[in-house]
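**Tokenised fold:**
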Amino acid sequence: MSAGLRRGYVTAVTDTGTAPATPLAGDALIGQPVKWRDWGRRSTHAMTVTGKAVAQAFYGTPARRAFYTGCSTGGQQGLIEALYYPEDYDGILVGAPVINRTWGHGAVLWNDLAAHLKPGHRLSDAKLRLLSDTAVQRCGGAGSGLAGDPFIGDPKACRFDPAVLACRDGDRADCLTAAEVATARAFYSGPTSRAGRPLFHGWLPGSEATGFYDWTFLQSRPNGEPAFVSLFKWVFGAKWDWSGFQVERDMARVDRALGPIVNDATRGSLRDFRARGGKLIIYHGWADSLVPPDQSVAFYDRAARDAGGLDQVQDFARLFMAPGFSHCAGGPGPDVFNSASGGAIPTPTLTPQHDLFAALETWVDGGPAPAQVIATRYVGGQPAKGIAMQRPLCAYPAKAWYRGAGDPNDARNFTCAVVRPRGAGRRGRRIAGAGGAGAGRHGRRTRSAPHHGGGRTSRIPPTDTDSAQGGDHRIRKGRGRRGARTPAADPRDA
């Protein structure tokens, strides 16, 4: 909330009605279907209506504009607002939105069991660093990426199989055992059927050891059990044995029980939000390993189809994919580009050039739609020490391409384009790994689909699951109406 207050906004935040649950301890909501519905849809709208009424009573006049920002669960709340309450906000900025809630939890449990169900499968921090370094080395120069960067610029352009690290003569520090390779493949692939058919998104190369909600966290078992496992207890009961989880059998039951309540972001239409002039920005880090970035791409692709095509959706919604950016914050890439994130690190300026929230304000007030924003990485994460790197984040499906000359840490030496521009160069030779367990969702080289982006004004909470992290809204105007619902057929499409 503080970021909004500093910029002169009336602000509000919600716990989405989930108290006394916390992000990593949701057992308190077992047998509480009203709270599930508040968390899944209703709470943010209630906060918005109440917040506007309080502001009008205090100031004696309605708000002129209303903006929403949120990341993770807060991002999901922002999409719910745009889909079902399109008159609540004029501008919505969301990051890493949880779209398919049930399968998002299922993917985390899938990861945990891959690492823990059998001895020897857990990847140590040292092995994760080895895996990450190898992925970056082999994929850094793929597509629009630059070899030599400490992150992967274009992970969807690379095929990477962790088997390239397989030990040949026993376990060593510089290789992965067969069990460790199997775990890495399970993380890259995401949940699959017994026949190997992809059921949901996996994590992309470059997400392994970002230092912020990375694979170490996914294997950590906070509170002595898999992260975010409480949602399953809402369906199966408090004594449910998660070690017996079978993805095809159990997810079908979870979806029947909770899908209609907590998965509303997989349905609905942005048509009403568009019709009243609303603007939506979504952002997501390619190195996120808590909410799959491919899920945001699929959401934007669906919105584009519903709007009549890419040109039409870009009239009111933009997506920005951030290379080397982890879950809502951090990661090895340029990670500062949203002043409304609530973090302690400021953007270089509060202008659309460097700040997605400023870009949204300008767009809502009749200015140009953002085509790019410059992301910044400070030396040691401290602005006082200067800027280490700046890169443009491009409105999807464009990507940032190095022009072939000049300092690669200077954003001016990059151009935004969907395909490599003529004359664009690279600092290093492209090296793609063998095989394809980590190649998108299907183990092959794929091209990303459209997606849309956004931000938040509240402090970035620790997670996106068992209990909600509240979204934040800044008021300067608003109203409210529900949109039509359109079911999504495949969990990977939402």
In short: The two ends are 29 Å apart (CA to CA). Residues 428-470, 476-488 have pLDDT under 50 and may be disordered. Residues 26 and 466 are 5 Å apart (CA to CA).
